[in-house]
Amino acid sequence: MTSDVNRSRLENKTTMAGSDDIVRSGRTGEPLLVVEGLVKRFPRLDYPVLSDVSFEVPVGGFTTVIGPSGCGKTTLLRIVGGLENPTAGRIIIGGEPSVGPARNKTMVFQHFNLYPWRTAIDNIAYGLELQGVSKEERRSRAREYLSLVGLDGFENHYPGELSGGMQQRVGIARALAVEPELLLMDEPFGALDALTREHLQTELQKICAQASVAILFVTHSIDEAIYLSDDVLVMGTKPGRIVREFAIDLPRPRWTYDARAEPTFAETRAELWSELEQELSDADSNEEP
Amino acid sequence: MTQDLAQSEIALDHARAKEKRSDRRALLLRILSIVVVLILWEIIGRQYELFLSYPLAVLQAAWEVLVVDNELLVAFGETLRGYAVGYVAAMILGTMLGYLMSYFKVLDVALGPYVNALYATPRIALIPLLVLWVGIGFGMRFTIVILSAVFPIIITVRDGARSVADEFLDVARIFVAGGWRTWRTTILPGSLPYVFSALRIGAQRSLIGIIVAETLAALTGTGRIIQDYGQFFQTDRLLVPIFAIGFFSIFMTGALNFIQRRVTPWERR
Predict the structure, then answer these.
(1) Which of A103, B19, B172, B201 qualifies as a cystine partner to B177, CB 3.0-4.6 A?
(2) Which residues contact B13 (CB under 8 A, 6 or more apart)?
(3) Testing the interface with B: which of A111, A113, A138 to mutate, by most B Cβ within 10 A?
(4) ipTM of the modeled complex
(5) Do residue B147 and residue B94 come from a single domain?
């Protein structure tokens, strides 16, 4: 039933994109996630891992954090998810301060983190199970999300019997099945081969078009960031901070045309590169002998 | 994509078929090896009957002590009773304490020294003390089995529960699982392989414990009977309970492996 509603919304969006009015994204103006002055220090580290990080993710928006490794982007994501505590600063979701894990946000992990002792369908149903959803209902909802990620027929497979790409599909379905407002994705395609990766990027966009969810995405692939996002935040390292924001002006849905071949794509790519290169050389010169 | 999926399924099936074939070959080789050893033993054993005996004599002795005299079955029964009750108690106690110690740091700090010290002490050295405390009957068998099995079980279960990867605990946390549910959905299934290792180790240690205790201090039981046959140079008879103990140990390990495969189907290689 819900998938019907989602599908009709998806069709709406597609037809609108086809008309003269170009739809850029599913986002509206109001922020869903507000990150305010986030600071994270670790003991025995003389500089903060995160220093005064502030940004917003709008409802239904797709924001990507990109930066050199060690810039604290995973830490940032884990703090937003409530898996770690900030030294200072606030996380606000839907107008309410959000401390610790909560039902309105979930995470997709780089190494999938599927429970090897649960079949695909039981992995997807895990969050629902913890919320006390009845067995029948969580089965049928999990099956919906299983088919949303294109894994029909694999419900009784254990993760060990699935390829990396399929495992991450399960990871995405597990996170979406609890119908969060905010989905955190920590280099979700980083452990996959290049082909699977590009394929899943497209799949993710299709899935996002059906599930209304805001996404905060972490990657170190520039192409991935541009292809997927409405906004890209470039992070610098030591201390980790946001050095620049890019808005990506590519019409959606982007899988209907060769978005990667657009001039805008190449321009943004070049700009992002020079920004990141700057950060990398700064990081090198900061390195202690 | 569909093709992709189909291929991965086919590959899986091939791998399983191959596994079965190699399983069958291994079994054949094992049987062959046993037959060769038995034949060699029969030939050489007949030359040195006192020291080695030989398979046919052992078989005949087995018939005598098991069916004609019936004395071995009585002894087994006695040993088994102490073993079964003690092992089940050690299993429950050890698993519970192992999990509790992994979960509550206070408990680990408080009980850790005793567990580690008793684990390191050969429990067999306690037998004279046990005779003093609980006598030489069922009480001693029961006690020595618990003492032999419970400490390795506690330590293995505790370490297993602690070794459950942070990445799994992250999942439980992100989906807002409380303490009890984190344990039930994440720590318990994640540590099951360790629990079965613990139970196997416990089964073996307690078997050693009970046989040694009976050999040293009991008037009845399997250990006593081995001692008696040895003293009267009845080598063929002596080998019957020894083999029986060996088979029993193999049976215990096999039963636990069987249950483990049933309980942890995802571990199928």
Answers:
(1) B172
(2) none
(3) A113
(4) 0.85
(5) yes
